[in-house]
Amino acid sequence: MEPQNTSTVTNFQLLGFQNLLEWQTLLFVIFLLIYCLTIAGNVVIIITVVSQDRRLHSPMYMFLQHLCFLEVRYTSTTMPLLLTSLLSWGPAISFSACMAQLYFFVFLGATDPLRYPFLMHRELCTRLVAVSWWTGIGTGFLPSLRISRLDFCGPSEINPSFCGLPPLVQLSCSSVYITEVTIFILSIAVLCICFFLTLGSYVFIVSSVLRIPSTSGRRKTFSTCGSHLAVVTIYYGTMISMYVHPSPHVLPEVNKIISVFYTVVTPLLNPVIYSLRNKDFKEAVRKLMRRKCGIYGVRFLY
């Protein structure tokens, strides 16, 4: 049995990309731009447009709104500290704040995998969204509780820029066997099962696409599905490689690179893949821009 927490560590130091000192300014500008684009793409474009156009008040776009809300919260859990670590040498985070960040990171990350459904009626859509949120809440609680009960005697340097599961397990000076097994089982249950269910759904999609008589129609649909599948694979692939193994003792630099994909890249790609390539959504954007431009007397030509 793992002992009760008797940690001597009260703060953790987030190292971030301190090994790339000469690139700090450039990395800060790049990640700040990505963060702003992610927030703009998810909040300003998708949530605003979907809310104002009645044609988009369907179960599919309801899922997109929940996805956007999750992405904003998910990326905001880690990006501010990442940006801070690029401006200062290893900013400190308290033990309690680190545990809180860990919980919300796992909670929102576990809610994300249940976000790629088919078009369906609103009642089933609402139930699936509720299941997704409750799954995330429960999944975030257990590993965060296990981590908070570990002993941390020092050092207190977290190589990535946020309080994730693998780096915290590595820093513990107590037995982590039960914690590692808990993380492994939850990773299998949440990540792998959802990933294979998603792949299974694409098998049905492909079989339906193959029945489309038009060659151009099949090509267009395959292009859209291919983009969706690429984002799904990036998200699940990096998360599974990080968490689905019995012992999370991997190189810190590998952790850092992998974490960038599922915390930075996929939240940025989702608004583009799931909405801006959608014909109905693009038409809704044009309609909204015409209306806004008309209010201010600006002629909209697009």
UniProtKB/TrEMBL annotation:
The chain crosses the membrane at residues 26-50, 89-112, 124-142, 181-205, 226-245, 257-276. Residues 103-274 form the G-protein coupled receptors family 1 profile domain. PROSITE patterns: G_PROTEIN_RECEP_F1_2. This is G-protein coupled receptors family 1 profile domain-containing protein. Gene3D superfamilies: Rhodopsin 7-helix transmembrane proteins. It is found in: Cell membrane. It comes from Colobus angolensis palliatus (Peters' Angolan colobus). It comes from the Eukaryota. GO terms for molecular function: G protein-coupled receptor activity; olfactory receptor activity. It is a multi-pass membrane protein. GO terms for cellular component: plasma membrane. InterPro entries: GPCR_Rhodpsn, GPCR_Rhodpsn_7TM, Olfact_rcpt, Olfactory_GPCR1. Keywords: Cell membrane, Disulfide bond, G-protein coupled receptor, Glycoprotein, Membrane, Olfaction, Receptor, Sensory transduction, Transducer, Transmembrane, Transmembrane helix.
